[in-house]
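job 3f2a | input accepted
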Amino acid sequence: MAFLLPAIGGCNFSESKLVTVCEEVLKLRLLAPSGYKRIEIKESEEPLNRADYKRYLAGDEYGPIIQEARMKDFDRGRVKPRMFEVLITYDAPNAYGTPIRGTTICQYPTDNEDTSKADRLYVMVDGKTNAEWLETQL
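job 3f2a | predicted structure (138 res):
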């Protein structure tokens, strides 16, 4: 079961770096980023199972030798990977300038419990990294 940490819309006194990065990536994908207005943020995290961790390693820059070593570490309990998620509800103008409510999910898989190294290259918004999303825009 995921642990939820709701944040009040507009308040950022204890905002995580992951929330900041997720919103940066989301705004890059909007037609009118200046019209973005946060409504609600919900953060959660949960452990990655073996299959999800293997998929995470395969999608990264790790070669097969490092992937195998990391999977052995996982099997021995030396590494406890986690998936951090940020659910963002927001208003943003559509192509006609009318504010539309949207919801997006931002995910950040990591080998540890540290989200301070999250950046735009490694988060996935609605299932796509920034590079994957840019490919769809060509």
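job 3f2a | The first helix runs from residue 17 to 29.
job 3f2a | closed
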